[in-house]
Amino acid sequence: MSLVVVANREPLRQERGRWVPAVGGLATALLPVLERRGGTWVAWGEKEADAVPRLAHPPEAPRFTVRRLHVPAREVTGSYHGMANRVLWPLAHYFLERVELRRAFYAAYQATNRRFAEAVLEEWTDPATPVWVHDYHLMLVPALLRAARPGARIGFFWHIPWPPPEVWQVLPWTRQLLEGVLGADLVGLHTPEYVANFLATCRTLPGAVVDGRRVRWQGREIRVEAHPIGIDTARFAQWAAEPRVRERARRIRRMAGTPLVVVGIDRLDYTKGIPERLAAWERLFERYPQWLGRVTLYQIAVPSRTRLPSYRLLKRLVDEQVGRINGAYMRDGWVPVHYLYRAFTPRELTAFYLAADAALVTPLRDGMNLVAQEYAWVTENGVLILSSLAGAAAVLPEAVAVNPFDVDGLADTLHEVLTSLADEPGRRRWDARRAALKERVAALDVHRWAERFLASLEGSPVTLAGASPG
Prior knowledge:
Layout: E1 3-6, E2 12-15, E3 18-21, H1 25-37, E4 39-44, E5 54-57, E6 64-69, H2 73-92, H3 103-123, E7 131-134, H4 141-148, E8 154-157, H5 165-168, H6 174-181, E9 186-189, H7 192-202, E10 209-211, E11 214-217, E12 220-226, H8 233-241, H9 243-256, E13 260-267, H10 274-287, E14 295-302, H11 309-329, E15 337-340, H12 346-355, E16 358-361, H13 370-378, E17 383-387, H14 392-395, E18 400-402, H15 407-421, H16 424-428, H17 431-443, H18 446-459
Parallel strand pairs: 1-4, 1-7, 4-6, 7-8, 8-9, 9-12, 13-14, 13-16, 14-15, 16-17, 17-18
Antiparallel strand pairs: 2-3, 5-6, 10-11, 11-12
């Protein structure tokens, strides 16, 4: 049976005049599913959507279609840059002081969600075909589709944290957004904690009844399940084995010029905890000066949402921190922080994973964090230091858990980990935990994630409230 995928970001990108699959994210997980099953991917066509509203892929033997929506610039400003990035994103990550409540944002969000739902209904020629809607950009779409096709099979996946109901009380539109999501038959989130928070939020909705992991709403029964997403393990294993990648890893270590190398890889986003991480790096040298000249941090910061003033301010803060640390401690050709402000391909990042003795993955909040899984999978003798506030902490318990807000505690943990890595017997102590992490990442593989969610969506009949769940 074919499939309709609905997501804000399109799965293809232009490269040298050709449309090729995007790397990473949903495209990695779902393009193989669409190629196998056939169907349609409905997305915002960020560029030239009017000129190219549909793409058949692969072009030589098409298996599915990408429907590229033209969204007017003013609507993009309110819906994407406004409601999605300045309301829902900070709220879901507990940054309530950054939430900007503007009626115009929500009005644009409603218009964009209607636009997506109308496009889906145009492409959705067979009502038996399941529809899978993704993420916070499109919370109203499931209910809009349900109103048009009451008997349809609709799934929804939320890719970022779902906070508890008291956080949602900040929004004047929580009821409408929640009703939108409950148009689905199956709601997926990354962790049991997010599932519990979603169900608790549903309990605040007048007329909704929560029974276990099911919500009875408007004569229907909606299942809510944890489906932690993973990475493309086969592809990362292939890259890690390439001679050019391995040589690049050796070159990264030579450039560092120190016995130990630590890596941090993030989008430049206030949720990622980069300033706190750099403060802990500075505190490490203050409290444990024996590490001066013996360890180097590569901090990769991928540019993100550069049109928003808050992100430009964050960049300036990080630039100043890096300059201060390097200015205070740089000596004899050694640079404490190699700060790389640009995007890297997953293949290029693989070289950093191979080169690093430890990875600092310390977001202040994160839905999952795939960098943690990528490093755990690729590293051959390194240690993963992971924020307890990332969704990945729930699925990677063998990582070294840290509180990203505790600068002193993070510096102390860094000292302990680096001390253990300074000699071979100490390094061997991590072997069992590293092997366990690899097993967990293998089980979470992104293709299995897609298969598990779709099997759950399609495996059980659509149930009405009071009926047997089947």
